[in-house]
Structure to design on (200 residues):
């Protein structure tokens, strides 16, 4: 009996990239005020992984928990989900890696970036879609997301990065027919904070 893999699953997407030799570049926000912007070429839902171990994360109570640390059966645990959005941005020739955002050169940058929407990015995207009168992003839509100052939530041990976003529906996206959609980075004020670049 032949087992078929869902062509839209995260594993299928990884397999296609592996076989084609394509290296995915994540959308990074190295500093307050940095904006990633581009036309959406695809999006899907996927399961989050632990930043350190890369293990799949599941909800145990209200806490995202690596699979190896679950005290309940995996089959009864709810996956921690995220939205993965593929963007066509203007090639910048650089990306950033690690917690310290070390700059890395991309000599053959094609402008493709993968945006992982989780944690504080979820509300930013949801608010942007609502403002645009949309429930979900579309292929061909234009998404801009900016990093704001870090905010410590009540009860949290550490502050989290905050984000704002703006969404332009596909039928109003005048950039979708251009070869190089606009990729911008806003300036930061003297106190280290950036005003909302989208006027919110």
């Amino acid at each position: 009996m032949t087992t078929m893999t869902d062509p839209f699953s995260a594993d299928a997407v990884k397999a296609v990239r592996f076989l084609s030799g394509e290296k995915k570049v994540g959308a990074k926000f190295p500093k307050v005020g940095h904006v990633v912007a581009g036309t959406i070429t695809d999006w899907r839902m996927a399961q989050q992984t632990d930043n350190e171990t890369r293990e799949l994360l599941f909800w145990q109570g209200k806490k995202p928990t690596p699979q190896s640390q679950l005290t309940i059966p995996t089959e009864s645990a709810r996956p921690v989900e995220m939205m993965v959005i593929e963007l066509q941005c203007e090639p910048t020739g650089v990306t950033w890696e690690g917690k310290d955002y070390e700059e890395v050169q991309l000599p053959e940058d094609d402008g493709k970036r993968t945006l992982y929407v989780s944690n504080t990015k979820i509300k930013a995207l949801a608010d942007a879609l609502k403002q645009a009168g949309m429930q979900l992003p579309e292929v061909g839509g234009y998404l801009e997301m900016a990093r704001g100052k870090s905010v410590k939530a009540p009860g949290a041990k550490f502050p989290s990065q905050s984000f704002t976003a703006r969404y332009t529906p596909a039928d109003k996206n005048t950039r979708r027919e251009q070869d190089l959609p606009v990729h911008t980075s806003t300036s930061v004020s003297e106190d280290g904070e950036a005003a909302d670049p989208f006027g919110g």
